[in-house]
Amino acid sequence: MKTYLVTGGAGFIGSNYIHYMFNKYDNDIKIINVDLLTYAGNLENLKDVENRDNYTFVKADICDKDAISKIFAENDIDRVVHFAAESHVDRSIKNPEVFVQTNVLGTLVMLNCAKAAWDNGDGTFKDGKRFLHVSTDEVYGSLPDGNDYFYETTPYDPHSPYSASKASSDFLVKSYVDTYHFPAVITNCSNNYGPYQFPEKLIPLIINNILSGKKLPVYGDGKNVRDWLYVMDHAKAIDMACEKGRLGEKYNVGGHNEKQNIEIVKIIIDTIAEMLPDTDERKAHINYDLITYVEDRKGHDRRYAIAPDKIKSEIGWEPETMFAEGIKLTIKWYFENTEWMNNVTSGDYQKYYQEMYK
Ligand code: NAD
Ligand code: TYD
Fold first, then answer.
1. 188-198, pLDDT tens digit by residue?
2. Separation of alpha carbons 323 and 190, rounded Å
C-alpha cells in the first residue's frame, strides 16, 4: 500500500484530487493531508473522507521544517503530491511576501524533508519514491492572440508575483533533479474550474454574484483568454504523471478549451438562467446587464493556451470533460451547496471583496 503525503489538500484542487484518489484506489492507498488551513483551506471540502481509516489530516505549515520532518519520520512516505501554495494572482499583486514565503520557501522545505527521508546515504534514493510538484502554465508568461501555445520547452517569463513565485518553485524542483537526481516530476496546468473553488477566482465568483444578485466584474476589455480544464481531469493527470511520468520531466496539462473571459461570463449567465426553475424569482434579473467592466488587473496576462501533446503521447492523458458539461456540473454543485458558499463568503471574504472591487 502506497502512502501519499498531500500538501494543500484542503484547497480547491487538492480536495478534488483526494476525492479522485479515494474513488479510484479506495483502501489500497493511505493519504496524509498537510494543510495550514489559510483562508483558502476548508475541511468542509473533505467531510466525506474525514472518517476513513486510511486518511489523516495534519494541520501544519509547509514552511515548518520540524513539523514536516516529523511526518516523514513517522511514516514511510512513497509519494509527495505538492499542491500547497498561495494561488490567487490579485492577492499576489497586493501582498507578494506570503507568496514567496509559502510557494518558494515552503517548496524548499518539502524538497529538503523528502530528500532527507528518501536518501540512501550513497547519493541514491530509495526505490519507487516520487515527488509530484503541481504548478501552473502562468510561469510561461503571456501569449499574443493567435495560434501559438505553451510547450514544455517554452522559456519561463512570469509576470505576476504569483507566477514568479511558482516559477521559482519549479526551478528549485528542477535544481534538485539536476543536482541530486531527486525523483521529481512537475506538471504545469492551465486554469481549473469545478466544485469547491473559492469565489475569489473568476468562475465561482461569477456564479456566486449571479445567485446573490450582484454585478459581474470583468477586468479590462474582457478579451483575455484562459484555457479552462475541469478539475477532475487535472486530478487524473496528476495521478497519471506521478505514476507514469519520467523522473525529472515536466508535463503541460490543459483543456484545449480557450475562451475569452467575457465568453465565460456570458456562458455562466445563460446556463444559470436555463438551469434555474421558472418559479425562482432571481431568474427575472439574470441577464447581460449584470456585466460591469472594471479597471484592468495590473500586468494582466493576455492569453494562456497549453499544448498537452507530451502528456498525451508519453502518458496517455487527455482532457475528458467538455466545457459545456463541466460548467453545468460546476453550477449544479454550487446550487446544491449554498451553505458551503455562505460559510466561505462570510467574514473576511466581505472585507476582501470590498477592498478588491471598490
Ligand atoms: P487553493 O488556494 O484553493 O488551495 C491552496 C491550499 O494550500 C489551501 O488549502 C491552503 O490552506 C493551503 N496552504 C496555503 N499555504 C500553506 C502553507 N504555508 N502550509 C500548508 N498549507 C498551505 O489553491 P488551488 O487552486 O487548489 O491550487 C493548488 C495548486 O495548484 C497550487 O500550487 C497552484 O499554484 C496550482 N495550480 C492551480 C490552478 C488553478 O486554476 N487553481 C491551475 C494550475 C496550477
Ligand atoms: P482568475 O480566476 O483569477 O485566474 P488567473 O488569474 O490565475 O488566470 O482569473 C481568470 C481570468 O478572469 C483572468 O484573466 C482575470 C479575469 N477576472 C475578471 O475579469 N474578473 C474577476 O473578478 C476575476 C477574479 C478575474
1. 999 999 999 99
2. 14
